[in-house]
Amino acid sequence: YNAERPHHRLGQKPPLSFLLQHLPQCQRWWTHTKHCIDFHGMLIFALVVSNDCERMFLSSFVVLGLSRAPFLCHAFGMQLPCETPFQIELAQHEVLRGYLHDTGSGPIGVFLPGFASDMQGSKSQLLAQHAQRLGRSWLRFDYRGIGRSDGDFAGLSISRYLEDVEAILALVAPRPLVLVGSSMGGWVATLAAQRYPQRIRALLLIAPAYNFIQDYFAALPTEEQKDWQETGLRHWQLGPYGPRFPLAFGAVEDAAAYDLLRHPPRLAIPTLILHGSADDAVPLQRSFTFADLASSPSLAIRVLPGIDHRLQGAERQLLQGVDEVWLAVAAAAAL
Fold first, then answer.
1. What is the DSSP string of 292-327?
2. I want to staple 205 with a disulfide (CB 3.0 to 4.6 A). Which of 147, 186, 259, 333 is the partner?
3. Catalytic-labelled residue, pool 67, 137, 183, 296
4. Which residue, among 111, 121, 314, 285, has the nearest Cα to 210 in the 3D structure?
5. What is the DSSP code (8-state) at residue 154?
6. Which residues pair with 179 in a beta bridge?
């Protein structure tokens, strides 16, 4: 463009005919990226938002550059390149939504977010991008009541989360899965691995928040416990300045059936726990307690010094952990 724009050297704007002349070239390049994002729709968006021809042309390249700048997809809540959106209709016509990048064979990695987190979170995006770079299949989704999926957040429960995971398993059957669960998602991932040992081949658990619903209720003053039971609803706040989420008391009653410290699991698959030493949301000791109780010969804990619950600053260790469990699955399949 710089070498072919005499209009710019004369201080003039490039004519629209120049831009249209180069669109086929751009479109051929975009086709090479497997139509990861709808070229026509995104380009039209770029043309509309810019009044100036030169900025219009550059804006088009910014949009086309999404495949090389996935963080822009996150900023606008979009799917990543090469992901295909999917939806699953569940009970009461509620729809579960997510994105799948499928290479056509081998295991599929699935990310299970934590409490009140969705598939647009930083860890979810990072893991999906990493999978694409390495040519691995990857799936991310929103639980019902969160993000783009239907449903009421107040009806959250471990049982409902497990139903959502079961729907994902059915969607990609009979492919094997590698589950990566963060916080509450780690709790759900462990339960799912117990239920479906033939499908789930490895676990990567990020500060798994076993029993955190029961712990939260038990830590409340007696009057607040009673109020939650009587009214059936409590607004749960994430941190002193965080958002508030309504949660039905049924979540507490439901969680009692999934106490993995009282009824520890048997896991015969590679399981790696990553837990930061500075985690003030889920104590590091919780992971060691779980490891002592669980029957899992292939379970390992990796302590991340100075890292908090969000795992900020430990992105490299997270991706290394995914690679380790993925290679363990490949090695087991080769036997």
1. HHSB-TTEEEEEETT--TT-TT-HHHHHHHHHHHHH
2. 186
3. 183
4. 285
5. G
6. 110, 203
Q: Is the pLDDT of residue 9 over 60?
A: no
- Confidence band, pLDDT 50/70/90 cuts, at residue 78: low
Pick the catalytic residue: 67, 279, 287, 296? 279
Give the tens place of pLDDT for each residue, 172-185. 999 999 999 999 99
Q: In 3D, which of 186, 247, 183, 191 has the Cα closest to residue 217?
A: 247
Q: Which of 74, 101, 275, 309 is catalytic?
A: 309
With b for 16 or more beta-carbon neighbours within 10 A and e for fewer, the 296-326 pattern comes to: beebeeeebeebbbbbeebeeebbebbebbb
pLDDT in tens, 40-65: 334 333 333 333 333 333 333 343 34
User: Residue 42: how many CB atoms within 10 A of its CB?
Assistant: 17
Q: Which amino acid is at 124?
A: S
For 16-49, how does the pLDDT look when each residue is reduced to its tens digit (9 = 90+)? 554 445 444 444 333 333 334 333 334 333 333 3
Can 130 be counted among the known catalytic residues? no
E strands, 183-226, where? 200-206
Q: In the numeric block, which tokens belong to residue 125?
A: 């995006």
Tell me the whole-structure pTM to 2 decimals. 0.78
Residue pointed to by tokens 């076993």: 210
- 309 in active site: yes
Q: Is the dihedral of CA 329, 331, 334, 335 positive or negative?
A: negative
Instruction: Measure the CA–CA gap between 72 and 70, rounded to whole angstroms.
Output: 5
